[in-house]
Amino acid sequence: MTKPSHGLTRDDAAYVARLARLDLDTAELDLFAGQLAAVVEYAAQVSALDTGDVPPTAHPLPLQNVLRPDELVPSLDRDEVLSQAPDVEAGRFKVPPILGEGS
Amino acid sequence: MTAQEAPALSLASDVRGGKVSAAEVTERHLALIGSYEGSLGAFVSVLEDEARKEAAEVDRKVAAGEDPGPLAGVPIAVKDNLCTRGIPTTCSSRILAQWRPPYDATVVTRIREAGAVVVGKSNLDEFAMGSSTENSAFGPSKNPYDTGRVPGGSSGGSAVAVASGMTPIALGSETGGSIRQPAALCGIVGMKPTYGTVSRYGLVAFASSLDQIGPLAQSVADAATLYDVIAGHDPLDSTSLDRPSPRTAAGLGEGVGKVRVGVIKELIEGVDDAVVARVREAAEELQRAGAGVDEVSVPELGYGLPAYYLLASAEASSNLARYDGVRYGLRIDAPNAEAMNSATRATGFGAEVKRRIMLGTYALSAGYYDAYYGQAQRVRTLIIRAFARAYERFDVLVGATSPGTAFPLGSKVDDPLSMYLSDVCTAPSNLAGHPALSVPFGTDELGLPVGVQVLAPALEEGIMFRVGAAIEAAAPQLPAPRVGAREDLRT
């Protein structure tokens, strides 16, 4: 494996993939490590600008909390929503064990 | 309006006037889709039954003397990341291949209320991540001017549908240029509205602070009309601006006398020679039409693309966490929840989506957050300030939409960074939340269309469309695409 120029190794890629819940094989990890290193190196151009006292912009609009009138309105149809789920039981989404032996 | 000036408005006028029925228009366009879709791949799904039902409802209104709406009977393609209740909405991803949303996007409700007939859901780069439509899990769309070339992306399917004449108008979405760039590469008009003017309710999220829905059309008048239909406050989107719906189409004929136009140096530098030449010709035409034209440098725009890829990927990595195999979409079974999540995402997402999630996760991770994500957010502020300075001297800014014309299929798929550079002229507008428009203006030496971009300050869609209409009026006639039914372009 060639070591990418921006220091993004297969181990780094594996760490990021774990954080992102992506089960990647070693071939994918090597490919992405190299490609991401190139992109990160390009993106690091942003550090060339002096931004000492510049506030960050998270959003183009000056956002404030938006409330709706406290009135009953229909919500999404539960059966229609559950019909799209991979697994349901008793009107709820069903998932494999989250805690315990399996994890 | 003649059919050449505004094909969609002309169709609507005929349907409203009873010259032709919405049913006939729908059948004609379904037949065109039957003829060309095989070579172009513009659609993920074609909605024959639903379209016939919607057309029948328009015809019923015409017969009953009710107002059938400004887009009565006009066939429209809807990008497949816009929710349609009960109708598959795939985002061109395996992870949502079978998903039928339980609600309609607000824009879909609005176009139907305006009388438009949704004939199909159009192809895109998976989750709108890409600049060529090659990242679709269902195969690429092809450029009607040369089917060996890409149509651009990510709203490539919508651009192809309109450029080929399969539909006169379409809806797309933008995060960093995904309407304007394919519009430029396919020789049509594409527009990104001011952030907040069009409801994002039912647009599958990519990067929420950048995403906007917008029109693609064969003419500026049609694009403005479709924008007027979809824009307006929506309580279902908390970022929707609470202001009256715009009426930009009505002002298109007011001309560009005294309008101050700045040609942005940074949006023609490093761009193909033919594209620069067309931008300069368009600027000369604006001057001839009475506008004041000067060149302006906005150096900060050079940092727009790197900042964009950090911010968009960071937001995407967070937004796409919802595809976890629990509430909708694909699930790959595994003994515990985390293994199920990871296997589902590895199987369901394509390579580009994985790359963006990885990049965004990396940019947000401990130790890198401030250097990448934080710095990109501060650069975003600098770009907004730089635009504000330029708009003290100019009413609109012009430049290239795309640094080049349509490139061959496969030529950039293995080099993500070179693909990302396709968005270099468009991404700054998304960072600023400003409107921007691409209008076709001539071709390169191969006969491939070139797009000229018009940028405007927030909420100045009216003057932007007016300048676009002046560019359109002065543009050389485009050749008709090799594949498609653009009778308006055949002389």
List the main descriptive attributes of the protein structure presented here.
heterodimer; A: mainly alpha; two-stranded antiparallel sheet; 2 strands; flat; B: 491 residues; alpha/beta; Amidase signature (AS) enzymes; 11-stranded mixed beta sheet; 38% helix
Brief overview, please?
Chain A is mainly alpha-helical and about 100 residues long. Chain A has helices spanning about 10-20, 25-45, 80; strands at about 90, 90-95. In chain A, strands 1-2 form a two-stranded antiparallel ribbon.
What does this structure look like?
The complex is a heterodimer of chains A (103) and B (491). Chain A is mainly alpha-helical and 103 residues long. Chain A has helices at residues 10-19, 26-43, 78-82; strands spanning 88-89, 92-93. Chain A has a two-stranded antiparallel ribbon with strand order 1-2. In chain A, α1 (10-19) packs across α2 (26-43). Chain A starts with 9 loop residues before the first helix and ends in a 10-residue tail after the last strand. Chain B is an alpha/beta fold. Chain B has one domain: Amidase signature (AS) domain (Amidase signature (AS) enzymes, Alpha-Beta Complex), CATH 3.90.1300.10. Helices cover 38% and strands 12% of the residues of chain B. In chain B, α8 crosses α15 (461-474) and α9 (304-319) crosses α11 (351-364). The two termini of chain B are 19 Å apart. Chains A and B meet through α1 and α2 of A and α9, α10, α11, α12 and α13 of B.
